[in-house]
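Archive record
______________

***
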Amino acid sequence: MVQDKKYSLFLGCVIPNRYPFIEAATKKVFQKLGITLVDMEGASCCPAPGVFRGFDIDTWLIIATRNLTIAENNNYDIATMCNGCYGSLLEADHQLKSDVEKRNMVNYHLSKVNRSYKGSIKVKHIIEILYKDIGLDKIKNRVKYGRKNKLDLRIAVHYGCHLLKPSEIRPWGKDSETPHFLDDLVEATGCKSINYLDKYRCCGAAGAVRSAFKEISLDFTREKLTNMRAAGVEAIITVCPFCHLQFDLGQIEINKIFKDRIDAPFNIPVIYYTQLLGLALGMNPEEVGLIKDKELSGVPPFISIEPFLTKIGEKLEG
C-alpha cells in the first residue's frame, strides 16, 4: 500500500456547506490507505466552471490559479472530491502550462497578493488517486469481506460530466467515452455495478441548469432515475457533491413536480464512493457519515439511507 503519500485536499463549496460527511469519509478512508490529505488554508471557490467561466474567462482563470498556488506552497498535488472543482482547476492548470501569455497575465494579477504560479503540481480527482496511484489490487487487499461475507449490493454508478470531459486533458484516454474505472472501484468493494440505459448521461444539474431551469434540470434526473430503477439497483454511487445533491434532493423535488409522470415516488439511497469504500474497509456506518439524527430535517441526506444500511446488515449477517 502507498505509504506516507500526501496530497493537498481541495474542499470546494458544496461539500463543506451541504455534505460535510463526504469530507469526513474521504479523510478517514485515505488515512486508512496510508495517505495524508493536507488542508489548503485560504482556498476559495474553484471557481465553478459553468458559472464564472461563462461570464469572464480571465477572472475565472485568476481565481482558479490562486488556488493552485496554495497547493504549490504546500508542495503537494491537489486532490479534489468534486467533478466541477476538478474540471476548473485541471483546465486552468493546463491552460497556464500551455499558454505563456495567459500565464504572464495571471501572474501579473497574482503579484498584487504576493503570489506566483509556477506549474509545479498536478490536479487529481480522488478517484484518479484511488484507481491510478493506489490501484485496484491494493484496495481489494484491504477490503474486509470475503466471498461468503461481502457487501454484494446492486449499484448504479454515476460518473458525471467534468470527471470525463474534455477527454484530451483527462487521464482516462479512450476510456473517457465508455469508462469502466469507477465500476471497477465499486466492484473492488464487493458490490456489483449494474449497467443501465444512458448510464453516461449528465445528472441534469451542470452548467447552472439547475439554478436557471429547475424543471428541465430535474427532467434529466427523472429519466436517469427511471432507468436506474428499471435496472433494479439498490443504491446510487456518486463522486461529485453537485451530482450527489441532484440525485439526493432531486428525488424529493421530482416526486413532487413529476408526481403525475412517475409510476411511484423515487427513494434510491445516494452514497458517495468513499462512504462505500469505508464500509468495505471495515468502518462502521457512523464513521463514514451514513447515520443521520432522526430529529434533523431539511438537511442532507434527503433520501433515507436506511434501506441501504438494512441491506448491508442483511448481507454481512448472512
The chain has two domains: 5-126, 144-317. The first strand starts at residue 5 and ends at 10. The chain has a mean pLDDT of 93. Residues 144-317 form a domain with the Rossmann fold fold (CATH 3.40.50.11810).
